[in-house]
C-alpha cells in the first residue's frame, strides 16, 4: 500500500510540474510574448542549461553560441537523423530540429547541461522546439507581409514619379499588373492628406480602405506627415473628407481635375489647397474653391503670353522638355531636396534641370517676381492645354503688364492686399519689402530698419489674414507677388527677350 501511495504521489507531482512549465511555455505564443530570445532565455533557466538556436548555415538566431559539429548539425536539419543526444567532455548535449519541414527556415536547437537529461527536461526541450517552429513561421509570414507591403509602396511611388514627369504610358504599364484599370482615365484629382508622422502609416492604410483601392495612395517621400492620393473618381474626395472630418490634427487639400500628364501641377494645387485647409473649419479645401489670378485673365492673351515665355524650350525633345517643365514646376513649389524626393532623383539633378530652364529663359530665379511669372506660365500651360478661342490672333507679343492690368484682376489684387491695411504694424509695407528682397528677411530688415526676426513675424502674421502660406515658397506666395505686380507695388520681372525700357522690364528709380 505504501508503495502504491508513493507511486501515485509521484504521478500527481509530475503532472503538476508538467502543467506548470507547459503554461509558461504557452505564454510565449501570446501576441505580446512572441520573441525567440525570450523563449531561449526561458528554456535556459527552466532546464538549467546553455541554449543555442542556429540555422543550417551556422548563423546564431538566439541564445549563446555553442561549439557544434557541422556535420551533425547538417544531419539534424536535413532529416538524416531525427535528433541527437551525446556526452562530450563532461557536458550533456541534445540537438533537436526546428522547422525541418521548411528548408528555408530550418534550424537546430542545441541544449547543453552539466547533468544528464531526465524525461522532464527532454519533454521541455521537445515542446520548446515546437513552439520555436511556430514562432519562426510567424516571423517569416510577418516578414514576407512586410516585404510585400514595402514592394507595393515602392511600386505606387514609382508610378507617381512617372506621372510627375508626364510619362503616362510607362505609368499605365506599371500599374496595369497590380491595379488593372486604375489609370484608365483622362483626368484625375490629387489629394494631400496631412497628419503627424507617427499617424501617417495608419492614415495611409485608411485612405486605401476609404477609396476601396480605386486610387493611388502614396506615402509622400518628401514630407513625413503627408499621404498623396491620386484618384480618378470624383467620389474619392467625399470619402477622404469624411475620413479627415473626425480626426483631430488631420487636414486635406485637393486639386482641380487634371489630365494624368499634369499630375505635377495637380500635386502643387493640392499642397496649396492644404495650406488653406489648415485655416478652414472643415479642415479640407479644394484648389477650385479659391479665386486664382489666372482665372481673372483673358484666356487667349494668357495662352499667347505663356507660349512666348516657354518658347525657348520648344526645340527640345518632348521627353526632355516635359522633364524640365515638371521639375521646374515642382522646384518652384518646394525645396530642391523635397523635389528630388518626390521625383526620385538627386537634388543635384533638380538643380541642374532648373539651371538649364533658367538659362534657356535668360532670367534669374533668385528674383521672386520672376519665379511668380514663370510659375504662372507653367500653371497656365497646364490649365490651357488646348488653345482658347482667339489665341494667336494678335499682331504683337502678349505682355505680362497687359495680363495684369485687367479690371477683374486688379480688383482681386486690391481686395487681397487690402486685408493687411487695418494692422497698425504696416504688414503690407513689410511684406512688399520682403518680396522685393527675394524673401530674405535680413536684407528686408536692413531696408526697413528693423530686426530680421520682426520681419519674419510680420510675414507670419500676414499668412492667416491672406489665408496663404508665405514663408514656404510656393503657389500661395506667388499669388501674393502677382497681386503686388497688379497693383504696381512691385516692379515687373525681367523675362527672356525683354530689355530695359520694355514694358515687361523692371523700372528702376
From TrEMBL:
Q: Which domain of life is it from?
A: Bacteria
Domain spans labelled PucR C-terminal helix-turn-helix: 337-378, 427-471
Provide an example Pfam family for this protein.
HTH_30
Name of the protein in question: PucR family transcriptional regulator
Q: Which organism is it from?
A: Streptomyces coelicoflavus
Amino acid at each position: 500500500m505504501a508503495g502504491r501511495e508513493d507511486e501515485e504521489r509521484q504521478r500527481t507531482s509530475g503532472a503538476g510540474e508538467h502543467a506548470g512549465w507547459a503554461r509558461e511555455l504557452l505564454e510565449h505564443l501570446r501576441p505580446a510574448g512572441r520573441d525567440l530570445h525570450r523563449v531561449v532565455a526561458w528554456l535556459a533557466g527552466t532546464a538549467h542549461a546553455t541554449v543555442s538556436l542556429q540555422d543550417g548555415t551556422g548563423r546564431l538566431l538566439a541564445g549563446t553560441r555553442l561549439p557544434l559539429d557541422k556535420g551533425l548539425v547538417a544531419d539534424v536539419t536535413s532529416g538524416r537523423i531525427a535528433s541527437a543526444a551525446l556526452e562530450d567532455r563532461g557536458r550533456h548535449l541534445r540537438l533537436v530540429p526546428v522547422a525541418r519541414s521548411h528548408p528555408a527556415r530550418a534550424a537546430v536547437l542545441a541544449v547543453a547541461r552539466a547533468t544528464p537529461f531526465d524525461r522532464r527536461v527532454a519533454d521541455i526541450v521537445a515542446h520548446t522546439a515546437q513552439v520555436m517552429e511556430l514562432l519562426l513561421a510567424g516571423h517569416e509570414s510577418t516578414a514576407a507581409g512586410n516585404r510585400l507591403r514595402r514592394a507595393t509602396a515602392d511600386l505606387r511611388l514609382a508610378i507617381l514619379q512617372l506621372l510627375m514627369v508626364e510619362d503616362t504610358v510607362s505609368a499605365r504599364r506599371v500599374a496595369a499588373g497590380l491595379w488593372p484599370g486604375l489609370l484608365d482615365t483622362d483626368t484625375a484629382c490629387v489629394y494631400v492628406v496631412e497628419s503627424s508622422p507617427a499617424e501617417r502609416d495608419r492614415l495611409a492604410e485608411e485612405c486605401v480602405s476609404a477609396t476601396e483601392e480605386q486610387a493611388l495612395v502614396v506615402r509622400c517621400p518628401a514630407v513625413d506627415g503627408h499621404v498623396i492620393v491620386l484618384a480618378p473618381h470624383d467620389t474619392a474626395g467625399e470619402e477622404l473628407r469624411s475620413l479627415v472630418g473626425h480626426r483631430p490634427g488631420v487636414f486635406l487639400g485637393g486639386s482641380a481635375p487634371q489630365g494624368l500628364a499634369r499630375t505635377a501641377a495637380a500635386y502643387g494645387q493640392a499642397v496649396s489647397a492644404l495650406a488653406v485647409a489648415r485655416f478652414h473649419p472643415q479642415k479640407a479645401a479644394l484648389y477650385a474653391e479659391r479665386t486664382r489670378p489666372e482665372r481673372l485673365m483673358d484666356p487667349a492673351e494668357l495662352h499667347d503670353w505663356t507660349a512666348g515665355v516657354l518658347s525657348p524650350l520648344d526645340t527640345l525633345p518632348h521627353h526632355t522638355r516635359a522633364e524640365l517643365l515638371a521639375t521646374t514646376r515642382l522646384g518652384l513649389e518646394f525645396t530642391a531636396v523635397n523635389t528630388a524626393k518626390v521625383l526620385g532623383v538627386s537634388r543635384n539633378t533638380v538643380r541642374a534641370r532648373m539651371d538649364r530652364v533658367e538659362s534657356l529663359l535668360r532670367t534669374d530665379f533668385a528674383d521672386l517676381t520672376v519665379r511668380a511669372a514663370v510659375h504662372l506660365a507653367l500653371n497656365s500651360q497646364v490649365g490651357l492645354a488646348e488653345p482658347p478661342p482667339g489665341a494667336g490672333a494678335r499682331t504683337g507679343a502678349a505682355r505680362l503688364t497687359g495680363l495684369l492690368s485687367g479690371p477683374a484682376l486688379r480688383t482681386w489684387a486690391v481686395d487681397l492686399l487690402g486685408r493687411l491695411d487695418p494692422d497698425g504694424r504696416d504688414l503690407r509695407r513689410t511684406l512688399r519689402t520682403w518680396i522685393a528682397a527675394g524673401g530674405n528677411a535680413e536684407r528686408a530688415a536692413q531696408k526697413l530698419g528693423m530686426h530680421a526676426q520682426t520681419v519674419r513675424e510680420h510675414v507670419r502674421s500676414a499668412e492667416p489674414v491672406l489665408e496663404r502660406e508665405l514663408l514656404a515658397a510656393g503657389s500661395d506666395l506667388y499669388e501674393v507677388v502677382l497681386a503686388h505686380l497688379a497693383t504696381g507695388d512691385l516692379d515687373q520681372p525681367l523675362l527672356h527677350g525683354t530689355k530695359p525700357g520694355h514694358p515687361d522690364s523692371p523700372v528702376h528709380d
